[in-house]
Request: fold
Amino acid sequence: MLPIINVIFSSLNVHARQNFARATFQFVILFQPILLSFLLYMMLRGSNPVHAGEYIVVSSGLMNLWSSIIFSSAGDIDRERYMGTLECIYVSPSDFRLIFLGHVLGNLLLGLFSMVLSSICVVFLFGLQVHIENPAEFLCAFTLSILSFTAISLLIGLIFTLSRSARILMNCLEYPIYILCGLVFPISVLPKALQFIAYVLSPTWAAQLLRESMAGIQNIRIFYFDLIALSILILVYFLLTIVLFKKIDRRVRIDGTLGVH
Amino acid sequence: MDQEKQSEYIIEVQNLVRDYVSHKGVFRKKKHTVRAVNNLSFFVKKGEIFGLLGANGAGKTTTIKILTTLLAPTSGSVSILGLDPMTQAKALRPRISFVFGGERSLYWRITGRENLNYFSDLYHISNEIKKRRIPELLELVGLKDHADERVETYSKGMKQRLQIARCLVNDPEIIFLDEPTIGLDPIGARDLRNIVKMLAKQGKTVLITTHYMYEADEICGRVAIVNKGKLVALDTPANLKAQTEHTSVIELHLNEKDDALLKGLNQIKEIDQIRANHTDQYESVSLQCKEPRTVFPQLFPLIGTGHLLSVRTREATLEDVYIHYVSQSPH
Ligand SMILES: Nc1ncnc2c1ncn2[C@@H]1O[C@H](COP(=O)(O)OP(=O)(O)OP(=O)(O)O)[C@@H](O)[C@H]1O
Ligand SMILES: [Mg+2]
Reply:
């Protein structure tokens, strides 16, 4: 157990620092939360809905979390491939998934920081009110949200070891999620087929749950249903990570996609 | 160790083949296959420094990647320490290590010491051993005074030395070095060769690739010359040099190109091989022969209007042997 924790922690430490030294990542962590909150604020200002503060905090927070955790973690794989370190860490005796979990958790910590930043922005800059009506349920939803983001990152990261063109795919991954998961508009405005995709993506459920627990839960049954749906998704993601790894590990070595030389 | 009793060889490569398949075109229409390693076989003993030589694209890096569990062979069999790198990677990985030359394979934004610390953690090295080993390794590669500076501030040579230290954090039994001295200054390269020799003295097995023939000659017990993925020669450097009958080389440096001379040289039957080379300062012509004495009388009358800058004879080096084998095999 101890070596496992040591590997995760060591990897978290190294990668959080490697990443924080990158200018793009600094932008994502420091400026993007402010920009996104501002954008959402401007969009909502005209309609002046109730719970605007909660809406903006949740949306910009999750958008940032998505950027910092998933986008950056998947990007890490590609960066390490070009740095030549991907091969080095891959052949170490530590399970690659644990090493990568360290990456993801490092990015998570930085992502949480930007969530706080965007909340501060909403409250102090725009003077909007942010309440948490049901704190216990909020905490529950928040924990699950983070777990689900971690699980997706692990899965996407592993898939990215498969291809040297991961970077192109990754660039297509960031913004569509904002729309697909109902972070900007309610998903009910999406076509049916897209709604289906939205419901297998955990941020959709996370956003719903967080908003509801902040604004005040209207129907506790629906809330718990959503909570269970999110938990099942997390389980599925983790299971996929475990099951697919063996296959991916074989494929990666057959295709030789870990290095660029 | 059981495995080593079974076989005197620590690395066994038999009929190894590796194809790379790439797809060209937007819709993956065209399949393109490159045979990087073609029926390669060789065996390495414990404690040996074994050189893998060959031109760019000969398949050296591909071979090393297969031996270090990074790449699957297309066919053939590989056994390292009695283990199959493809199916028994888990048992094999803690016992081996590799360096792909150059400045990569390190985290540039953290310090040298932190790099070693991180890789030690990945290899489950205990704190106790880490505390002792990391300073030792930094000392060994001469980075003690720069250990706490960020790697991005290091020179190329320092990065390369840090890579050597990195590959030793797990005290591996076999070390794979792919062009470890590329781009190093002469003293840096010599220091590195000394480290490699010392490691072999400690009983570690080293498989090394290099494009510097004098380097292979100096440190390798045996070398394999690979051309287009195929083995073309394998022996000790001394035997290889003796095997090729061309034991001497006459080198002429001329101030201008002399086609008549080259034509004339082709007529001298005592000359076994002619190589003409152009450099910024002069035109050089190398003649391989068994006995320079028999060539000289016929040589000088051929030199035309051009100015002969220098003539010298020397023994054939490993480089001559290498060129002999690599240029001879069909392209
Ligand atoms: N990932 C890859 N995909 C497709 N072809 C590859 C790949 N890696 C190597 N090759 C091809 O395989 C052949 C052998 O390459 P390899 O890198 O093993 O040679 P090498 O002997 O290490 O050369 P060098 O001295 O230049 O490092 C080359 O023709 C190369 O183009
Ligand atoms: Mg190479």
